[in-house]
Amino acid sequence: MTNVWCVRAGGGMYADNFLRGGFVGIGWREISEDLGPIQTRDQLYAVVRRYFPDIQSAILLSNYVNEIHRFLFEIQPNDHVIIPSADTDLLIHGVVDAGTPYYDPSGDDGCPLRHRRPVTWAAEPIRLDLFSTPFRDSIRTLLTVPAHTRMRSLLTVFMVEHKEEFIRALGQTSMVASDSPATRKESHRIVLEQLMQLTPPDFERLVVHLLDALGFEDWERAEHHGALRDVFDACGEIRLSLPARIRLHARFHRGNLGARIGADAVRELRQFIPFGGHGVYITTADFQPAAVAAAAEEGFARISLVNGQQLADLIARHWTHLPGELRDRLSLEQALVRN
Question: Which residues form a coiled coil (predicted)?
């Protein structure tokens, strides 16, 4: 099965290096050895532990391992890869070659992202206006840094949604997986229904573990004075793979399935976002078009929107980071099986 990945390229800063050199890369400059020979997660864990001896959080260390593991092992030859472009109306894309991941110790090309994989880049980028509105909205939030952020875009490497539409746009419909949209939609529904059945304390426990899995550091519970019920606000910092941190205010809202959050609720969140920070609104419900527009209003702190389906995917991605007791409570193993 062919997947579509985004690699952040330092927010697009090193896109030209990638194109000229025929590779895609990640940072982790602290790790100054070739990771190509590594064959197992345990071997990778030992390397990461050696280079980050001061990390005490097992969850944070696991996040580091997962991030690098995704780049080394989950991205497969013939998968598609997208990187940010200075022109947000174009997508730079290529196909991952069969070569082994490698490390460039010299940095002579001016790119500090030295853990690399060979890629054959397309001769021309593809226009974003060829895609549907949901795809365009999703991919813009994934690729624009730091003006738009969403939970997965805080990672260096992540799988792109709507991959079937992207592959079709390249004229490669035969490579589209035969996954049933109905099956995926049903899985999302099961996950969200189980979330609605959690007691408020269990919902808060789920949020706390998601925050840790997502890499929140020094976060604290934030006060919420709005009209919404079942709301958990947290403010903290997330460390990017590059030596940078962003301040993020995250709102987790357990709303009625099928309901749609309006613009006022999105704007209300802004008053809690710290100066120079970003916001993310995560809900089991969905968003009205006016809410999407409000989240991207110019001149204000940007707010990323994560709806119920995306939240279900988020839980699936970090399922193994949840404590066994909570996983047993949710009983979602079958619903969260990834295609």
Answer: none
